[in-house]
Amino acid sequence: MTGSALAGTRAPSWVLCDRCRLPIYGKRLLRAQGVCPECGHHRRLTAVERLAQLLDPGSERPIEAPAVAEDMLGFVDQVPYRDRLSDARRRTGLHEAAIAALGRVCGIPVAAVVMEFEFMGGSLSNGVGELITVTAELALEESCPLVIVCASGGARMQEGALSLMQMVKTSQALLALDNAGIPTVSIITDPTFGGVTASFATLCDVIIAEPGARMGFAGARVIERTIRQQLPDGFQTAEFLLEHGQVDAIRTRAQLRGTLHRLLSVLAARPRRTDVGNKPVSTPARRPPALLTEARQLPAVDSWDIARMARNPSRPCTLDYIRMLIDDFEELHGDRLGGECPATVGGVGMLDGRPVMVIGQQKGHTAAELNQRNFGMPLPAGYRKAARLMRLAAKCGIPVLTFVDTGGAYPGVSAEENGQALAIAENLKLMCGLPVPIVSVIISEGGSGGALGIAVADRVLILANAFYSVISPEGCAAILWRDAAAAPQAARALRLSARDLLEMGVVDGVVAEPDGGAQADHEEMAQRLGDALRAALDELRSVPGPELVAARRARYRAFGRSPANSCSTTDARMPA
Ligand SMILES: [Zn+2]
Q1: Spatial separation of the C-alpha atoms in residues 212 and 195, rounded to whole Å
Q2: Alpha carbon distances (Å) from 411 to 243, 312, 377, 421, 454
Q3: How far is ligand 1, taken at its centre, from the CA of residue 213, in Å?
Q4: How far is the CA of 389 from the centre of ligand 1 (A)?
């Protein structure tokens, strides 16, 4: 039986789960929003049920199906298209394979389109393409986010090449929203294929998939028939897509509204609207500033001691700071090009009520996590994910915060094959022109180009016991001393400590660490860092984009220009 069993006011008494085959009490299934309480299978919902689940009760204002040219081909297969169309209309009670409405999600105004798979396989017709376009145009007019719930087998064959043109029409409607800075979210339900996947379903800023939902261009059976190859387990499922960098997150039906609320609270924060649930920006902390901006405020330390201290696995990592400083963090995954980097995390959240895009390199504390996170060495997919999220921040006008903590970009065959150097280089250029504030902080290890790939910023901060260097002391010793044991001498020669970096102007401020270092008191360290970040963001918040970019350009243009600057060592290397 189909999901339409959930429609209407009365639930059937017992329903058999399509996956685990267990009988479920109808009312229980209804309460669980059509998710099997036994196995978690997300049963297909009708578009009407979905819209009702998505929007706040009573907020729905339906958008009328626009008039379109129907059956321009006079198409007939075994049955005339006209008959198929009227049959689908009769069975579903809908005019087309999608419905749309203006409404609210947890108080945030949205324009929403929901596709109906029961209507000719959710196929993309002139009518569906027009409805999506009209809804996107309304989102533009009302300046509210667009949410699209996808379910489709692809283009509608019976409408020929005109169906293909709907892919372009909807894509350009989304482009207009990009240009206007209006966020878009697509929700992938099972199944989403063909022309829908190759247009609006994957062009949205954030792509959320339901557990187990399949998405792809060609269907598994077509692929198997064409290439005669056994497909991997879980092929094209949400879990497969997450691993291959193509969706941002997987969310159960119960989590969906909460996730949308958190995402849209950040992404749709500009222009300000009186959203229910949006926290007011709190006043900056009054405690004494933990930020040191003059080298003489810092003790002279041994660079080798610092290098060893910075690598202490007990120091807080990016995700620790996110947990302690960022409210309502929603992690976003994937570079959308086929890769997901475990060493690079990113997402949106609030820093004391200020919307921020957070990007960071994650090492972890235990052997298992270090392994899983690739020892904090990012893949090209990590830099490309960071780039995608920075572009999204620029589109939505929210500042970018980066936490740098890597020994270096991953040196491996696959990384080279996938253009590691290109990925880093592209980020340098992107960050140079990003029209929103960027604040970067080196929390432990700033390893060369791998660190720089997310560290071009308006304000570069460093923790007192962190370091930033063109090469690791060991690497430098091996090359120049031809002896890795000379690492302590190399560290001293490289002048990689926070104090040295401040003197050279490579960093703008040093965040003092608690006694015993950041590892001794995570909470205290996070408080100090939080104060510094808030102060930096407050300083940059009101600066117009072009001025930010000009000042950033001047900052980097100045490096290495004058031999008479405050840097006394001539062979100090600036990151190139
Ligand atoms: Zn089940």
Answers
A1: 20
A2: 21, 22, 8, 10, 17
A3: 15
A4: 36
**Structure token pair of residue 275:** 């959203």
Residues 6+ apart with CB under 8 A from 340: 242, 243, 244, 245, 333, 334, 381, 385
Q: Residues 102-128: pLDDT tens digits?
A: 999 999 999 999 999 999 999 999 999
Beta carbons within 10 angstroms of residue 318's beta carbon:
28
Cα–Cα–Cα angle for 334, 337, 343, nearest 5°? Answer: 40
Q: Ligand 1 mean position to 4 CA, how many Å?
A: 17
Q: 121 and 84 in contact (C-beta within 8 Å)?
A: no
Select the more confidently predicted residue: 558 or 563: 558
Q: Is the peptide bond before 435 cis (omega within 30 degrees of 0)?
A: no
- 246 alpha carbon – ligand 1 mean position (Å): 27
- Could you give the CA distance from residue 361 to residue 561 in angstroms, rounded to a whole number? 31
For residue 117, the 8-state DSSP code is: T
* Nearest partner of 100 among 113, 117, 116, 115, judged by Cα: 113
Q: Say how many Å lie between the CA of residue 15 and the centre of ligand 1.
A: 10
Q: What is the pLDDT of residue 561?
A: 83
- What is the 190 CA–ligand 1 centroid distance (Å)? 16
52 Cα to the center of ligand 1, angstroms: 23
Span from the CA of 151 to the centroid of ligand 1 (angstroms): 21
Is residue 161 scored above 80 in pLDDT?
yes
Between the CA of 43 and the centroid of ligand 1 the distance, in Å, is: 9
Q: Which of 37, 42, 1 is nearest to 209 (CA)?
A: 42
79-83 long-range contacts (CB < 8 A, ≥24 apart) are 81/158
The alpha carbon of 240 and the centre of ligand 1 are apart by a number of angstroms equal to: 21
Candidates 230, 205, 245, 503; CA nearest to 379 is 245
Exposed/middle/buried for 266, CB within 10 Å: 0-12, 13-18, 19+? buried
Ligand 1 centroid to Cα of residue 19, in Å, is 5
Domains of the chain: 1-42 (no CATH), 44-267 (3.90.226.10), 291-572 (3.90.226.10)
pLDDT digits (tens, 9 = 90+) for 470-525: 999 999 999 999 998 999 999 999 999 999 999 999 999 999 999 999 999 999 99
- Tell me the C-alpha distance between 424 and 408, whole Å: 11
Percent of the chain at pLDDT > 90 equals 88
pLDDT tens-digit series, residues 10-31:
567 899 999 999 999 999 999 9
Task: Look at the pTM and tell me if it is higher than 0.85.
Answer: yes
Number of Cβ within a 10 Å radius of residue 227: 9
* Contact between residue 466 and residue 310 where contact means Cβ atoms under 8 Å apart: yes
Centre of ligand 1 from the C-alpha of residue 238, in Å: 18
Give the pair of three-digit tokens for residue 398.
Answer: 């929210």
16 C-alpha vs ligand 1 centroid, how far in Å? 8
Amino acid identity of residue 402, one-letter, is T
